[in-house]
Write a structure and sequence with these properties.
alpha/beta, 556 residues, six-stranded mixed beta sheet, six-stranded antiparallel beta sheet
């Protein structure tokens, strides 16, 4: 519900705040006072194209702001979540700003947003009908959604959309798989050759480093044997070896330690040194005995290293890279060899998905067809009461060129307001007043299923009066039981039935024209209804007539 509309420096409006309430809100005032300007500002907020011409003369920018109660509106919450925002205490504040130079900015709850996103949110909250461009019901997608709601098929349409989304995803996947299969097939022989080349090598991680170390040992076998043997002799095996001398020194220091405990630590350290030298000496001997001079093994290792070098240069740079490449190539070979099986599985899934989508779309088509006839009859029955004698209304279904997310047909509302003329699209109805009354008929029929909480009617009373005006007022009040309705009117029959009556006045202040809006009650409202009746609002007779009209409206 729209709680407040704030307008600043828009056309002739200086600074204006309009507070709206539940039920029927009527906005009246003298011709030229600015009634339609208020609706024009709201239209800008809802997404109408911005123009610097709306900026009040002498001002830098025009600002329009709307405060909405969106408590319980999950669709609005989902859209806000998509934008990375959320309602604050159930309130949503939309703001549009137009600068004198034409720059256009928008905000949602104080966060910068695109005008498009502000409009998307506004379209869920307000339907505006009249002479302005922003009229939701003139869009085919909105008409389709309305017919689905009237048919009780909103969930069914969501199923069609989901089935269609699944179908498109499978089609995209099949196209990608098919393209990939063609690509792999053209390379299969080469892929298989490369994969086999790597697999045949029987590679092991770290093998190249181990072989390089072995090759060094084999290449320097004689040197290693000689050096290890000499070190073995010097440390452990030879006469007067380091181990023998350390043994003698260890005994001497142990003797000192028995006399003077201060040398106990030194004796222990010498003991450790002795055992360390013995251990190293023995290992040097074992090493020298184990080193082999094996030319055949050296040649074998060199051949293996050459193979690894070629594979690393081709698929590397490291052996780990070669192994990883081999695994990838083997997977691509398996993929290419199994492509036909995968495509066959996808074809089966595609056939099932298409059958599901078409079955749901067919059910939706049946529901729409039945609802279109009922909707046409219901709206047509209301048109005469709204001053549209001989009017015809038709919800036409036209087959789409292919199955789409919304089903297998387009929906378009057609109307004929003169006998003998073929129905035409709503967007081509000439009069803003006639269009508003057609919309009122639609909203009356759709009152229980229409989710847009606020309906705005401008020019709905153009060209009507008398009993027709009374019936239009009654329809407005009926719809206002389920929606917040905001109507711009010059007819007392409509204004007198409003739950909340607002008066637009234009005057002068500080040498400039200003527009104000005031809520009317009591005698102020009597005076305004008297003025709208065409009499002298100051006369007793006009006031009595106004009181009678208000009393009759309150008594219904």
């Amino acid at each position: 519900m729209l709680l407040e509309l704030r307008i600043r420096n828009f056309a002739v409006i200086d600074d204006l705040s309009v507070t709206l309430r539940p039920g029927l809100n009527a906005l009246s005032g003298e011709t030229g006072a600015g009634k339609s300007i208020v609706v024009g500002a709201l239209s800008l907020l809802l997404g109408e194209r911005a123009s610097s011409e709306v900026v009040r003369a002498g001002e830098a920018r025009a600002v329009v702001e709307g405060v909405f109660d969106v408590t319980g509106r999950e669709d609005v919450a989902a859209l806000l979540d998509e934008m990375g925002l959320e309602a604050e205490d159930g309130l949503l504040i939309l703001r549009r700003e137009v600068a004198q130079g034409g720059r256009n900015r928008a905000w949602v709850n104080g966060s910068p947003a695109t005008a498009g996103n502000v409009g998307r949110l506004g379209a869920r909250l307000v339907d505006l009908h009249g002479q302005h461009d922003h009229q939701t019901l003139l869009r085919r997608d909105a008409q389709r959604a309305i017919l689905d709601a009237f048919a009780g098929a909103t969930d069914l349409q969501a199923e069609v959309a989901e089935a269609h989304r699944t179908l498109l995803e499978l089609r995209r996947e099949r196209e990608a798989r098919q393209a990939r299969a063609r690509e792999l097939e053209s390379q299969l022989d080469f892929l298989r050759f490369q994969a086999d080349e790597i697999a045949a090598a029987g590679l092991e991680t770290g093998e190249d480093e181990a072989l390089e170390a072995e090759a060094r040992r084999l290449e320097h076998a004689e040197e290693l044997i000689g050096e290890a043997g000499r070190a073995h002799e010097a440390l452990y095996e030879g006469d007067d070896s380091v181990a023998d001398r350390l043994a003698a020194l260890r005994s001497a220091v142990e003797h000192l330690a028995r006399i003077d405990p201060l040398w106990e630590e030194g004796a222990a350290e010498l003991d450790q040194a002795y055992h360390l030298v013995v251990d190293v000496g023995r290992r040097l001997g074992d090493y020298a005995a184990g080193v082999e001079h094996d030319p055949e093994r050296l040649a074998e290792v060199r051949r293996r290293l050459d193979l690894l070098f070629r594979l690393k240069r081709k698929y590397g740079p490291t052996l780990a890279d070669v192994i990883a490449t081999g695994e990838r190539l083997a997977a691509e070979v398996r993929e290419a060899e199994g492509a036909e099986v995968d495509l066959a599985d996808l074809d089966r899934a595609l056939a099932e998905a298409e059958a599901r989508a078409r079955e749901r779309a067919g059910a939706l088509s049946e529901a729409r067809s039945a609802a279109a006839a009922r909707l046409g009859e219901a709206v047509e029955a209301l048109l005469p009461d709204l001053g549209l004698e001989g009017g015809r209304f038709l919800a036409r279904l036209e087959p789409a060129d292919e199955l789409r997310a919304y089903g297998m047909e387009n929906v378009e509302f057609l109307v004929s307001l003169n006998e003998g003329f073929e129905p035409r699209p709503l967007s081509r109805v000439a009069s803003g007043g006639e269009l508003s009354r057609v919309m009122l008929a639609l909203k009356t029929v759709l009152a229980d299923v229409d989710r847009v909480p606020t309906l705005v009617f401008d020019e709905i009373d153009a060209g009507i009066g008398g009993e027709v005006a009374v019936r239009v007022a009654e329809r407005l009040r009926d719809v206002a039981h389920r929606h917040q309705v905001f109507v711009v009117t010059h007819l007392p029959q409509i204004a007198s039935r409003a739950d909340h009556h607002l008066l637009v006045r234009k005057g002068a202040s500080g040498g400039a024209t200003v527009t104000t809006v005031a809520a009317l009650d009591g005698e102020e409202r009597v005076e305004e209804v008297a003025r709208m009746l065409g009499g002298d609002p100051a006369s007793q007779a006009s006031r009595e007539h106004a009181r009678e009209l208000l009393a009759a409206a309150d008594g219904r």
